[in-house]
Amino acid sequence: MIALIRNEVMKMLWKKKMPLILGLLLIFVSLLSYGQNYAYERNIEQFEAESGTAAFNWEGLTTQRLSELEERSQNEFIPEEVRASIDREIEQLNYFIENDINPVTPTAAKFNVSFAEQGIILFIPLLIAILAADLVSNEFSRKTIKILLTRAVPRWKILLSKYIALLIMTTLLVFIIGLTTTLVSYLFFQEWGFSEPIVTGFTLFEGTLNSDSTILIPRYQYTLLIYSLVWFVSIIVASITLLISVIVDTSASAIGILMAALIGGQFLQFFLSDWELVKYFFVTNLDLTRYLTGSYQPVEGMSLNFSITILSVWAIGSIAISFIVFNRRDVLV
Amino acid sequence: MYKKIIWPLVIGSAFVLSLLFVSGFIVSIVISGNDDTAQTETEMDMEIPESEPAEDMPPDGASDILVLGDSIGFGVGDEENLGIGERYLNLLDDDSETGKTVTNISVPGFESSQLASLIESDEYSASISSAELIILSIGGNDLNNLNLEDTATLTLAFDETLNIYKENLTFILSEIRSINPDAQLAIIGLYNPYSDDAPQNAPFLLEWNHETRLIVNSDVGFAYIPTYELFDYHLDEYLSPDDFHPNGTGYQAIAEILFRILN
Amino acid sequence: MDTSVLKVSDLQKEIQKKLIIKGVSFDIRAGEIVGFLGPNGSGKTTTLRMLVGLSKPTAGNIEICGHSLKKEFVKAMANVGCIIEGPDLYDYMSGYRNLELLGSMSKGVTKKDIDEAVALVGMENRIHDKVAVYSMGMKQRIGLAQALIHKPKLLILDEPTNGLDPQGIHEFREIVKNLAREKNISVLVSSHLISEVQLMCDRVSIINDGRIIRSASIDDVLVTGEVVWILDDPKRAQSILRESFDLDPSIDGCHLRASVDSGMLSEINKTLIASGFDITYVENKKRTLEDLFLALTEKHTI
Ligand SMILES: Nc1ncnc2c1ncn2[C@@H]1O[C@H](COP(=O)(O)OP(=O)(O)OP(=O)(O)O)[C@@H](O)[C@H]1O
Ligand SMILES: [Mg+2]
């Protein structure tokens, strides 16, 4: 079995998919971080021009905010849990002041997280699809499936080895995405920002803040959390792509079908967010990071656990169907 | 080469990374597990205040309802020109025959600073002091005058505007309190008329509302009236043709939630 | 039967509601080379696909070295090497890597086995080039090597000489014959080239329209029993053969033809010589396989 997996990983590497994916990623990330840096500098200039002061004084603004918060924290009428959250914000701002960091400067740590947040519904699934789409379909279109299936190895083992190889490559790819975004954006921003504290674990929902659950963690931990979610989503997308790849004959149609599903799903969610069924579609549930950042629900009744359950069901279903189809399929190429 | 170097490297790093990701994933679930309870609590929070402020609501009294603030307070977009105040009163009348009247001194387009100076001018001190319920709608114009297009400046500008708004709101509330220590105050939260077009702005709005609520929470006689959720799922139904102000149905919905929270 | 390496009984296959293979049965013994002949679309490839587990028979049984292909796929396939419809390899890798990859899928294939197979098909010089730059014939050779690396007892080859030059075809034939002779490997080979089947195979099965219509040893299939003499007085010889041997010879110029049981031929010749004929030529005429093939599949239209 190990040999089979090793073979499949080798095929994926030799097919030169990784350079293609890496190229796409580099172009995209460079453009984005250049754009963000440019916009930031323009804004500072604009701000300075408008306010008339010599330099943009973030420290003043932050200190002002800090003293305000401290005042509020001392107000005895404030409920205990609100005070806790205020204290966390104070702690956070103190860090910025003590370390002389402008809280709004773009940093590599912020960039890689926002890249993951934005990319998790379309761009990252697309990269995974490039990796996974030809896993099986390519063997059919190139007819190499014949030499693969006439060995003394049962078919399910062959598919399983392909799936495990795919998981391995997906894991590496997620890591590479994180690494690339961090390194490239560092080139532009010249700031790592990984030790800055960030508040997470709350929902700002209709103004209510459950501060029992908010925690202050360094950014590198937060990045890890976000990328763990990206990893999970990637594995789900990879599993679904595997199914498509088993069913269709060419990798082009496999990528096409997956893209249609992703984009169509976004449309569905956009136009029919009242429709109960939409929330059981996998595309609607891909955006897991928003649960961590505490933003809104796209459709009522969705939560992280709900989305994870739905996605898992989709993935397990896809894998099961893949194995059944692959085992039964007549090879007539 | 492949067998000896690349393959062990690939499988080794994949293994380590998987462990890392799995643990990160579990931590995320744990953190957001609290998230879930937070959300259920938020859903419940509409009901919690229902009983609370009811005690503060003096059942007697013939004094008025005063509506203060901007175009939402004024009732722009309401086909029947009733506004929140009148509609709220109608709801009350359904229950009991009270001869209350509504005074509306809202000015469309008002920002928090303008309202602050209006109150400071003592021009309406009489109305404020005689009111039993003061409905306050402010802040929407502060936020709306921000240029929401540009993401990077936005954070800076937003923080500034929010700070100014908070100062003004604190000032307005304490001023009203000093003029009329007994009145029930209801502060209308902001909804997002653009949530369909620009969902990325939602966090700003939520933070805005959150800050408002923090200030409102500091006094038991203040009630915060959430509208964000209300509108988010019914934007088509509740917005007037200008796609910004509520229509009659929208105002009715706000009045109803106000009624539920106060009674 | 112990010696039966491949045993096929009543194999049927339906594709898209159409019965394409209509009950095929045959046996291959150890060390035997069997030719599989048939016109285009007769079902050769379809049959061979089922033999190597690429598609599942609608009915019928396949046993390889005593293992049912359906129930003991792995054990059965461990004895089979095959090329089905062309040598399709991973063309983004070198030939050698292809062999390594496929070899690692079977138990106990060593580097030595791979090198041996490469040497056998004469590809040592180009084995580390990418398959994408190979010529058709080179791919065929790697295709054969790929079928041999795990030392199978049965080779199933579908049109293996497509794209080989005459030299290549000759080498290929010698390789296959040697394998059968020295390593006792059985071979089932389908081919368009009748001459090739004639030169290579011990037995031939002719398939048409999903049915095997003739299955016999090459010699049996080809012997027609017709004998041709060239001698000085055909007329007199004709009457002698009529009277003494009860035959019905015909005369065609200086040729005398007759259908003769091969056991009687030497007796007849003795008599003719004793009668004073001057015999310059005697031939026990064989049909070409082509004649037979055309005769058997005459009414065929695709
Ligand atoms: N995938 C398929 N779908 C439908 N029919 C098929 C399929 N593959 C083969 N057939 C049919 O099966 C029959 C036999 O085809 P097969 O490929 O076995 O012929 P063959 O004997 O190998 O011919 P050739 O000498 O041309 O290679 C043909 O009539 C063909 O139309
Ligand atoms: Mg064929």
Write the layout of secondary structure elements.
The complex is a heterotrimer of chains A (333), B (263) and C (302).
Chain A: H1 2-14, H2 17-51, H3 58-74, H4 80-98, H5 108-119, H6 123-132, H7 134-141, H8 145-149, H9 155-189, E1 197-200, E2 215-218, H10 219-247, H11 251-271, H12 289-293, H13 304-328
Chain B: H1 2-45, H2 48-51, E1 65-69, H3 71-74, H4 83-95, E2 102-104, H5 112-120, H6 125-130, E3 133-137, H7 140-144, H8 151-179, E4 184-188, H9 202-217, E5 222-225, H10 228-232, H11 235-238, H12 248-262
Parallel strand pairs in B: 1-2, 1-3, 3-4, 4-5
Helix pairs in contact in B: 4-12, 5-8, 8-9
Chain C: E1 4-15, E2 18-29, E3 33-37, H1 44-51, E4 59-64, E5 67-68, H2 73-77, E6 80-83, H3 95-103, H4 111-120, H5 136-148, E7 154-158, H6 166-183, E8 186-190, H7 194-200, E9 203-208, E10 211-217, H8 218-222, E11 223-231, H9 234-245, E12 250-252, E13 255-259, H10 265-274, E14 279-286, H11 289-296
Helix pairs in contact in C: 3-5, 4-5
Describe this structure in a few short sentences:
Chain B: The chain crosses the membrane at residues 7-31. The complex is a heterotrimer of chains A (333), B (263) and C (302). By secondary structure, chain A is mainly α.
Largest sheet of chain C: 6 strands, mixed
Structural class from helices and strands of chain C? alpha/beta
Number of helices, where a helix is a run of at least 4 consecutive DSSP H or I residues of chain C: 11
**Ligand roster:** adenosine-5'-triphosphate, magnesium ion
- The neighbouring-strand order within the major sheet of chain A is 1-2
CATH level-two architecture of the largest domain in chain C: 3-Layer(aba) Sandwich
Distance between the termini of chain A: 26 Å
Determine the oligomeric state from the structure.
heterotrimer
β-strand percent of chain C reads 25-35%
Number of domains of chain C: 2
Biggest β-sheet of chain A, characterized?
A: 2 strands, antiparallel
What is the number of beta strands of chain A?
Answer: 2
Helical fraction of chain C = 25-40%
Trace the largest sheet of chain C across and list its strands. Answer: 6-7-8-3-9-10
Instruction: Show unreliable segments of chain C.
Output: none
Strand content of the residues of chain A, in percent? under 5%
Strand segment count of chain C? 14
Protein name (chain A): ABC-2 type transport system permease protein
Keywords (chain A): Membrane, Transmembrane, Transmembrane helix
GO molecular function, one term (chain A): ABC-type transporter activity
Transmembrane segments (chain A): 119-136, 163-189, 224-248, 255-272, 306-326
